[in-house]
Amino acid sequence: MFDLQKPIPAYLLDKRNITRLILFTAAFALVFINVYAPFGVDVWFNVTRWTLLLYSSIITLTGVLVVVVSRIIMYHTRHRFKVRLWQYLVWVMAEVFFMGLFYTLYQKLILDDPRFFPDLLVVSVQNTALVLLLPYSVLWLYFSWVENKKKLELIRTGQSQEHQKGMVHFNDERGTLRLSLKAEHLLYLEAADNYVYIHYLDNGRPERQLLRNNLKKLSEELANSSLVRCHRSFMVNSEMVKLIRRGKDGLLLELDLPEMHTLPVSKTFLENVMQAFVRD
């Protein structure tokens, strides 16, 4: 059973995949409308078949602009909120409705279709659902297949996290590998808006690397590593914690560094931290 609260896969918000979706949907709509002839397209104009193809293609591509605008909005707002599965499904249904509304208004206002507007809208929405949902489903399966193929290739070549003992791998928000570190050199992660600073040791000196991702997603991906979420803004490498002490505002984790460096432990993640050190 689908978890409707689960965020949608990152590949659905990838710019290249969005472009592929728009182009494939437009091509599918052209073929579908001219072959299946929904919306009464075969009686739109009293012209030859080739002229009808030209006219209907223009109208079809104009309708697809609904998808173009929708996906542009989705792409540019993906960092402001995490799109969950139920939200994505509602978004797609809205695309279906508004494209159907476009074709209904075109038939009613331009072609002077005599049918009752609500009846015409229902038929248009039903046909639009076929125009959009079929290519959407096919591409979702294709994108998923490509993503799984990449993961299998990583496993085959021995580059997966399970096959590189002692290494911690960091992917960006799109799932692309950006950095790999030996666990013994990793210090902690620090949230910075839509980015995360990865703090580590380089020849014994503290350094940091900026990664476009968020702590919540990284904590899920690195659940089997030595990294532990200790605060809304921090994840710490439990192997680098020298001691736990109580400060004025709560528990503090002191890192095993020449210069004293501490990280706070919030009440929300206190149990996580204690379980990690009990386990260790």
Could you walk me through the main structural features you see in this protein, from its secondary elements to its overall organization?
The model is unreliable at 159-164 (pLDDT under 50). The protein is elongated. It folds into 2 domains: 10-156, no CATH class; 163-279, Beta Barrel (OB fold (Dihydrolipoamide Acetyltransferase, E2P)), CATH 2.40.50.1020. It has helices at 15-36, 49-76, 85-110, 117-156, 215-221, 270-279; strands at residues 167-171, 177-182, 186-192, 195-202, 205-211, 227-231, 234-237, 241-247, 250-255, 262-264. It has 280 residues and is of the alpha+beta class. Strands 5-4-3-7-6 form a 5-stranded antiparallel β-sheet. Strands 8-9-10 form a 3-stranded antiparallel β-sheet, with no helix packed on it. Strands 1-2 form a two-stranded antiparallel ribbon. Helix content is 48%, strand content 21%. α2 (49-76) runs antiparallel to α3 (85-110). The longest helix has 40 residues, at 117-156.
Domain count: 2
Q: Give the overall average pLDDT.
A: 83
Report the biggest beta sheet as strand number plus sense, adding barrel if it closes.
Answer: 5 strands, antiparallel
User: What's the β-strand tally?
Assistant: 10
What is the global morphology? elongated
Strand content: 15-25%
Structural class: alpha+beta
Radius of gyration, Cα only, in angstroms?
26 Å
Give me the side-by-side strand order of the main sheet: 5-4-3-7-6
How far the N terminus sits from the C terminus, by CA atoms, comes to 35 Å
Which stretches of 5+ consecutive residues score pLDDT under 50?
159-164
**Tally of DSSP helical segments:** 6
- State the share of residues found in helices, binned by percent: 40-55%
- Topology pattern, helix = H, strand = E: HHHHEEEEEHEEEEEH
